[in-house]
């Protein structure tokens, strides 16, 4: 796979620094990869969009899943993951995850992460949706992500890794042979350098997290604008499974017009015995699945949405009043505080909840070593599509996937460096004078993209809703493209316009894939194709961006991904 030559419209880099590897992102995946690369003797630079601890990892409430408990096995964890993935998991990728997962968690503890333990000092484990065993390790009750982030950020600072904070990554640099040669980025005024610059390196790790901000309401932080997927598309990489966006079933309902990041009510609350009820107190998930409220997330989100439609209601309720004040205060202090900040007291009243965009099961396609289809470009964490999640992520597998696959790609980068020797250092990027620039959207178009996606490609989808979304997104894209191609003009380069453009890029791919997949599977719910269709659709959709900025879509031959090389 070679670069399309498409770059965001941006000033030329005014400064550059060399490295062996640049890691873009500072969540569990990015910082784990950076620490492992640095430990292997590689000069490592971490680039992050805000502060080191501002990514999605810190917002993870529930925990990290691994077969750590008595009687649990990787095989049982594999089975639960495959069921949740609805026939689209790459089984070899899942086996790697569950087999290497327990030791990866132990190494995380060795890095300094402190999980909740019982009186005997053993890690406390809980259940979440789709798990038949108690295998979710948590910290601070419901602050697992914050604790993992604290430990990893502390380790990065203790090791003295070079970091560039407040920096938005723009595009991939490539050398004369089409291999990765680093990235361009823009530092937003508070970092070590200001303006557009570059990090020159033979290996780039994308760990940029998700793209939840493509929808109006999401659990994702404001930085989750799909930057990594958009960069990979422009670089010629393959992306897959973007139609499978997991909508978390229980997000605190703040009103029908609420936009942006919404407070999450962790699945662990249901894992500890809270019930989903309607306004009359009826537990509507009973009889819909053997696990009732603890069914996989796609089933619970559909159950809530279906009940909302039946009753003409804007939300349902999560009832944990039977927990009592002490349990709420010690097991779920973060959630308790968030609810009370919005005038809801879970100790005395049910919590109003509704589904909201949460996690992208798809992303930049990688192999078992984190390698994408572009030589030297790696991806891990939510930005990547390893095949682990299939059509629906099993609860709390995300932090584990970030750990395991970050370690695997770091080992591959170190091996490549050892094999190729010093000549891999500081590659010379090819100048892209005269290559096609990517038109930029005006900042106000970001809201337009989000509303188009929420209306047409949310929890409920149909051919008609997706056609409307595709047409409106195409109009935004065409207007920007025609202005650039015809008049040589585009919106003013800047963080707002670059983010809006990245959101449009990933939205176009998501809608194209969702329109083609004429079935209901996992978290992709087609009202007009209500059944799962294994003979035709037990395969993946793989998308690339052509040099003319149009999309090329193909299907794999099976649920297993072909090699990236």
From TrEMBL:
The active site is at residue 297. Keywords: FAD, Flavoprotein, Oxidoreductase, Pyridine nucleotide biosynthesis. It is an enzyme of class 1 (oxidoreductase). The keyword Chaperone does not apply. Its EC number is 1.4.3.16. Gene3D superfamilies: FAD/NAD(P)-binding domain, Fumarate reductase/succinate dehydrogenase flavoprotein-like, C-terminal domain, Succinate dehydrogenase/fumarate reductase flavoprotein, catalytic domain. It is found in: Cytoplasm. GO terms for cellular component: cytoplasm. Residues 20-399 form the FAD-dependent oxidoreductase 2 FAD-binding domain. One of its GO terms (molecular function) is steroid dehydrogenase activity, acting on the CH-CH group of donors. Pathway: Cofactor biosynthesis; NAD(+) biosynthesis; iminoaspartate from L-aspartate (oxidase route): step 1/1. Its cofactor is FAD. Pfam families: FAD_binding_2, Succ_DH_flav_C. The keyword rRNA processing does not apply. It catalyses: L-aspartate + O2 = iminosuccinate + H2O2. GO terms for biological process: 'de novo' NAD+ biosynthetic process from L-aspartate. It comes from the Bacteria. Residues 447-554 form the Fumarate reductase/succinate dehydrogenase flavoprotein-like C-terminal domain. Catalyzes the oxidation of L-aspartate to iminoaspartate, the first step in the de novo biosynthesis of NAD(+). Belongs to the FAD-dependent oxidoreductase 2 family. NadB subfamily. This is L-aspartate oxidase. It comes from Streptomyces seoulensis.
